[in-house]
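The records we work with from here on pair a chain with its fold. Here is one such record, which you should read through line by line:
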Amino acid sequence: MAIKNADLKMLYGRSAGRCALCPNHESVFPDSLAGVDLDNKNISEMAHVIAKKKKGPRGGIECWGDINGYDNLILLCRNHHVAVDSNPDKFPAEFLIEVKRRLELKVSQAFDTDRRRDHDVRILMLIMECMQFMRLRSQCENLPQNFDSSFFDAGTVFEELLVDVPDARPFFDIVLENNFVDFQQAYQNLTSTLSGYIESDRGAVFLYAQAKPVANKMIIPLNKSELYRDLRSGEVLEEIGRLKRVFLESYNELVSYIRTAYSEVDLYAYKPYKF
């Protein structure tokens, strides 16, 4: 019985057209060989792990399933096919099955890595489009004296992202995920502290007054008329300054990593940046 076309497609597909025994899993469709232009000529051969005839290489061993089926085939270049069948003792069936498995696993992992990176890039781009990411520094750089009320908007993006795209986090890239966790935690620590000291509608006295329009921004300034009535005000301002420094450190670390590892992500993709 001849080898079925479906088994051939599976063999070539799962091995990505690579020889299972070449040191670097060379392609069986080379552009050239030994300086000779081959124009992607097919130099592959489908070898049987267990020969069809008992007297053939590794013949006589019980073969599970179709002896001409995918499970009993391995994709090799011509040189390795000759070596394997000429030296069956050096290339036992178990060894051939294992190197085939390793190659196919390597191919599978390579494509999985690509898909995972595509996911991380897609989520990063979505965040940049929805968040004023590159303005976060300027929005809080004057703390503890004042800050831009838009600084709170990033928190809304964090919340809505998990609702709209449930599989957005965690990132597959462990370094990216750790940097993002540190950044988000530092942001939440700072904003939760700031929100606790903004003047409420009930007229309670806090360190910060209500927002005022300044140069197309809503700036929340220190409530200086009430500030020094609070004996803890100095400690609070010092803590806000510390949280700001922690946030900017984590923010800078994240920006640096994205620029290095994900150069295709536009950090300035937030819609109002597009003029």
